[in-house]
Amino acid sequence: MARTASDLDPAVAARLKRNADGLVPAIAQQYDTGEVLMLGWMDDEALHRTLTTGRCTYWSRSRGAYWVKGDTSGHHQHVKSVSLDCDGDTLLVKVDQVGAACHTGDRTCFDADPLPVSGGQ
Amino acid sequence: MARTASDLDPAVAARLKRNADGLVPAIAQQYDTGEVLMLGWMDDEALHRTLTTGRCTYWSRSRGAYWVKGDTSGHHQHVKSVSLDCDGDTLLVKVDQVGAACHTGDRTCFDADPLPVSGGQ
Fold first, then answer.
1. What residues does Mg(2+) bind to (chains A, B) (predicted)?
2. pLDDT digits (tens, 9 = 90+) for A18-53
């Protein structure tokens, strides 16, 4: 379970609208190209560490632990900026991604082949 | 509660890894500028409607109803592509956003002033 006790700035914590597990989704975007790399999850402490260390830190839901992106792979995400959305339930983290964001070795976690869209466009 | 019965292509449905409410987060990104506009939630049927109508359709967790973005405001999201991520639990939807994505009238839902980052960069 995600922890809620944290050194996160209380003014920021007051704006966060967490899910039932105490988490908010964090979209990681390459700061200069605009490429969306992945989506991870942060609790207050993961956000605090991200803001104060300058390296993206997520809460791993599968492992139940904090996870500094790149500590195993070397593929760190150097934080450029972190923005909350209008209702405080999503974070947009602009980063400089070293190497691949995806564990498969691909640059991003999103399929290169999109799903077929039959309407509109 | 989100519905799970849907006409969504079974091959796509088989890849979706939904949360306990049957939903996956969907990141809406302006297709040409790369700007991240907002994050919404889709169940199978919302994704099916998004793919077949070419207009982003979300599940509103607060209202408990499907919601075609723009049907009230005129600020539709015309779908260019929809991609699943490597573990099937996030969607990246590239759109052409008419007007403002945010209900505040701002172009995106994310704060123009990011949170202070004290480490790294």
1. 85, 87, 89
2. 999 999 999 999 999 999 999 999 999 999 999 999
Indicate which of A37, A85, A115, A118 best probes the interface with B, i.e. most B CBs within 10 Å of its own CB. A115
Residues of chain A found within 8 Å of residue B44, distances taken between Cβ atoms: none
ipTM of the complex: 0.95
Q: How far apart are CA A92 and CA B82, in angstroms?
A: 19
- In terms of pLDDT, which residue wins out, A116 or B84? B84
A39 touches B at CB < 8 Å:
yes
Q: Number of residue pairs across A and B with CB atoms under 8 Å?
A: 141
Is A67 in contact with A61 (CB distance < 8 Å)? no
What confidence tier does B120 reach under pLDDT thresholds 50, 70, 90?
Answer: low
Q: Are strands A57-60 and A65-68 parallel, antiparallel or unpaired?
A: antiparallel
| Predicted confidence (pLDDT) at residue B36 exceeds the cutoff of 80 | yes
Half-sphere exposure of A22 (CA within 13 A, CB side): 17
Q: Which of residues 44-73 of A touch B (CB under 8 A)?
A: 51-55
Query: Which chain B residues have a beta carbon less than 8 Å from that of A9?
Result: 115
A10-97: what fold?
A: Ubiquitin-like (UB roll) (3.10.20)
Q: CB contact, 8 Å: B111 with chain A?
A: yes
Average pLDDT, chain B: 94
- For residue B2, pLDDT over 70 is answered with no
Q: Do A27 and B39 touch (CB under 8 A)?
A: yes
Q: Is B43 annotated as a binding residue?
A: no
CA dist list (Å): A77 to A18, A116, B74, B100: 23, 31, 37, 29
